[in-house]
Automatic annotation (TrEMBL):
It comes from Cohnella abietis. Pfam families: DUF2653 (PF10850). InterPro entries: Uncharacterised_YxcD. The lineage of its organism: Bacteria, Bacillati, Bacillota, Bacilli, Bacillales. It comes from the Bacteria. This is DUF2653 family protein.
Length: 91
């Protein structure tokens, strides 16, 4: 979960040209709506959908691990916390 939050923080900080430390992220899961995140930047709140989360994870994997990942390889899941499973093969 921490790396998903880091991925979203880094992605949003780059997108809005603000320091990473000014980005707050809360990951959310709803049975009807699926995965999302509430992001607060400079006292403004935004809601990201699952596709946005996967985009952030893809960029994070490339910049932090030099690993190209595609959305079809990322599976978000929730048990006690939200986590991402990244498969080796593309579909």
């Amino acid at each position: 979960m921490d790396e998903i939050v880091n991925a979203v923080c880094v992605n949003m900080a780059e997108r809005y040209e603000v320091p990473v430390t000014s980005v707050e992220v809360e990951l959310l899961y709803d049975e009807d709506q699926g995965f999302s995140a509430e992001v607060t930047i400079q006292e403004r709140s935004r809601i990201l959908i699952e596709a946005n989360l996967k985009e952030a994870i893809m960029r994070y994997m490339l910049t932090e691990y030099d690993q190209r990942v595609y959305p079809s390889q990322i599976q978000l899941d929730v048990e006690d916390e939200i986590w991402a499973d990244i498969s080796e093969e593309t579909e």
